[in-house]
């Protein structure tokens, strides 16, 4: 079942790269008691994700925070080291928190997976964005396959 507006983010463990190595991140702790602008990309370093999706959130992170967002976060079915390298390359450090869903457990738990096998990518997370307040989905923007509009930072800012 796909998560929807009004649903609570399910308990899952994501991973964040830190100076001390990979650190598990509980969704319950990460989303609890605050407002998070969360977006998902099919993969780090992929064309639309690198050219448009992540850069939009990097550019708009401060504007989102000025509108009440406590943290801007990106999730992808990649490992924490890949997401850390992508954040460094994209200038996202300190602006967007990268949450690795290496095995796709979170993507499956919220019902937003895609099959990228024909591109050699296997099971991935779909392209989407959400505003999550105290663990509850307040806005959810899921893209049609191949599209990029409703999950953008600009669209999300219009929802804040």
SSE inventory with pairings:
Blueprint: E1 13-18, E2 21-26, H1 27-31, E3 35-40, H2 47-66, E4 71-76, H3 80-90, E5 97-100, H4 105-109, E6 113-115, E7 123-125, E8 128-133, E9 136-142, H5 153-159
Parallel strand pairs: 3-4, 4-5
Antiparallel strand pairs: 1-2, 3-8, 6-7, 8-9
Count of separate structural domains:
1
Which class best fits the helix and strand makeup? alpha/beta
Approximate helicity band: 25-40%
Strand content: 25-35%
Give the overall form: globular
Can you count the helices?
5
β-strand number: 9
* Pattern of helices and strands: EEHEHEHEHEEEEH
Radius of gyration: 14 Å
Instruction: Give the C-level CATH assignment.
Output: Alpha Beta
CATH architecture: 3-Layer(aba) Sandwich
**Widest sheet: strand order?**
5-4-3-8-9
Folded structure, characterized:
With 160 residues, this protein is α/β, with parallel strands linked by helices. Helices cover 30% and strands 29% of the residues. It has a single domain (13-159), classed as Glutaredoxin (3-Layer(aba) Sandwich), CATH 3.40.30.10. It has helices at 27-31, 47-66, 80-90, 105-109, 153-159, and strands at 13-18, 21-26, 35-40, 71-76, 97-100, 113-115, 123-125, 128-133, 136-142. The chain has a five-stranded mixed β-sheet. Strands 1-2 form a two-stranded antiparallel sheet. The two termini are 26 Å apart. The model has no long low-confidence stretch (mean pLDDT 95).
